[in-house]
């Protein structure tokens, strides 16, 4: 997320990858604009509550217009935060909830897909090793990206577990440093 000249948070662009991270960032943006509840739950129209022959009371009509305006703003944020390749999937959605749910359904995956993805990430974490000649910063970046993906899918990793994994997966070049860390840790 970045901030524009007016101090407003700029929505990230989603292009079919990293839906989980994108959705977390978008949720924060919607909350900052007071729109998240509307996007998540939708809003009530009078056709849902009032018989066709009745006219809605003035107070409810004002609330409906406010909700419609807020929903249009939220829908616009969603539409402008997806690439041209993703946009056709939500182009016919008339509410922010509809667009949000469509993207969630298509890119988040069902429970089975998420379990498979989590299992793959767990395996990648367990088998991750520093490559010979790999700069330490690159290795840390790779590991923390993996840790963040795991956490996004609901995996609970303690800092101690992450440190332990990093220490045992460094190349032999770092054995002396690992030994010093191990000795001072306990």
Automatic annotation (TrEMBL):
This is DUF4219 domain-containing protein. It comes from Malus baccata (Siberian crab apple).
